[in-house]
Specification:
about 160 residues, mainly alpha, three-stranded parallel β-sheet, two-stranded parallel sheet
C-alpha cells in the first residue's frame, strides 16, 4: 500500500504519542520535501522537529511535476500541494490530510483521503487502540481543534 502524508496528521499523531500507528497500519509512509521542510526546517526548535529524520518508516520523496504543484499553490499551501502531487506521481492508495480544502481537492482528483481521526479509527477497527475517546481528548488537550459535532459523531459511531 502506498501512503503519502501531509504535515498536520504527522504532528498530531506525534503530539499524542501515536505516530507509530502509521507504521502499524501502513508500514511505509512517504512525505514530500515540502512536508519535511515544514516539520524539520521551519519547525526547528519545536516539538517533533526531528521526527522524520528519526522515524524509520517515513520516507522523504521529491515531487517531479513542479507545474502541478505550482497550479495547486493558488489554492493550497506548499505541503498540501506537494502531498497531492506526490500522491498522483506514486499512485498512492491513501493520502493522509486533515485540512478540509486540501481533502476536497484531492477527492476531486479521485484520491482516497483519511485524516488524523481516520487513522485513529482504522487503528481502533484493527484493535491497535482500545478506544477513541481517550485519543480524541488527548488531541484536544494538546491544542488540536475538533468540532463538537465530529467529536460526538465519532464517539457515537464507536458506542463510546
Amino acid at each position: 500500500m502506498i501512503v503519502v502524508s501531509n504535515t498536520t496528521p504527522i504532528l498530531c499523531l506525534h503530539k499524542i504519542e501515536q505516530l507509530h500507528l502509521l507504521d502499524a497500519l501502513f508500514g511505509r509512509v512517504y512525505v514530500p520535501m515540502a512536508v519535511y521542510n515544514e516539520i524539520s526546517i521551519a519547525g526547528r526548535g519545536k516539538q517533533g522537529d526531528n521526527i522524520i529524520d528519526t522515524t524509520e518508516y517515513i520516507y522523504v520523496k521529491e515531487t517531479q511535476n513542479v507545474l502541478a504543484v505550482n497550479l495547486l499553490r493558488s489554492l493550497l499551501d506548499c505541503g498540501e500541494s506537494e502531498t497531492i502531487v506526490l500522491g498522483n506521481e506514486l499512485g498512492a492508495d491513501i493520502l493522509v490530510i486533515d485540512e478540509k480544502k486540501a481533502r476536497r481537492v484531492a477527492q476531486t482528483n479521485n484520491q482516497s483521503v483519511v485524516g488524523t481521526i481516520g487513522i485513529l479509527q482504522l487503528a481502533k477497527d484493527r484493535g491497535l487502540i482500545a478506544d477513541m475517546k481517550t485519543h480524541l481528548d488527548n488531541l484536544y488537550a494538546n491544542g488540536i481543534w475538533i468540532s463538537q459535532k465530529l467529536y460526538h459523531a465519532v464517539l457515537q459511531n464507536n458506542n463510546e
